[in-house]
Inverse folding.
C-alpha cells in the first residue's frame, strides 16, 4: 500500500507523540509556562510558500488524526500580540514540525520561531524538519536561493549579529536532524 508524504509524516509523528514521555524538567511550569501542554504540535512554516498547499494538507491531516496543532492563522486572534502568542504556543507544545521552504529564511518571524523551537529541544521538545522543495544542505549552509534570502535578511539585522548567529546555528542544527525531504508537488 502506497502512502502520500503527508500520511507518512502523520504516522511517523503519531508514533513519536504517543510514545513521548515527559521528564520532570519538561513538566516544570516555570520552563513551559503556566498550565498544561496545550498543543501536541506547533507548525512553523513560511505562509507564502506552503500555507495553501502542503502545510494546509498537513494541518488538516493532523487535526483529523486528533493531534492538537497550532497554526498561527487559526490560533491567534485579532488584537493579540503575535510574538507573545507564538512564544507561548511553542512553550506549550510537545513538539514542532518545521516546514522549510525556499523563502523560509526571508522571514525573521520564521527564524525566531526556529531558534525558540531548537532551544526547547534541550528539555525534550520533539522536532521534525520537513524540507519542502529546498535541499537540507542549502538550509544548513545558507546557500542557493535559501541563502540569498537569508543574506537579504542578514543585512537588515547587521546590528543584531548575535541574533543572526543564533539563526545560523538553529538552521545548521535542524538541517542535520532526521528529516523528510519533499519536492513541490503536494
Amino acid at each position: 500500500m502506497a502512502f502520500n508524504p503527508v500520511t507518512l509524516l502523520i504516522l511517523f509523528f503519531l508514533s513519536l507523540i504517543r510514545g513521548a514521555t515527559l521528564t520532570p524538567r519538561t513538566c516544570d511550569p516555570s520552563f513551559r509556562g503556566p498550565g498544561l501542554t496545550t498543543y501536541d504540535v506547533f507548525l512553523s512554516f513560511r505562509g507564502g510558500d506552503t500555507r495553501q498547499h502542503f502545510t494546509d494538507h498537513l494541518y488538516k491531516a493532523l487535526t483529523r488524526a486528533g493531534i492538537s496543532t497550532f497554526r498561527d492563522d487559526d490560533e491567534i486572534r485579532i488584537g493579540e500580540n503575535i510574538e507573545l502568542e507564538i512564544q507561548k504556543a511553542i512553550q506549550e507544545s510537545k513538539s514542532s514540525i518545521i516546514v522549510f521552504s525556499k523563502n523560509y529564511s526571508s522571514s525573521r518571524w520564521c527564524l525566531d520561531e526556529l531558534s525558540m523551537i531548537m532551544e526547547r529541544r534541550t528539555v525534550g521538545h520533539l522536532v521534525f524538519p520537513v524540507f519542502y522543495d529546498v535541499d537540507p544542505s542549502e538550509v544548513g549552509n545558507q546557500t542557493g536561493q535559501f541563502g540569498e534570502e537569508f543574506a537579504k535578511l542578514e543585512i537588515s539585522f547587521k546590528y543584531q549579529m548575535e541574533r543572526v548567529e543564533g539563526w545560523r546555528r538553529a538552521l545548521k542544527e535542524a538541517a542535520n536532524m532526521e528529516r523528510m525531504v519533499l519536492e513541490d508537488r503536494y
Remarks:
- The chain has ten helices and five strands.
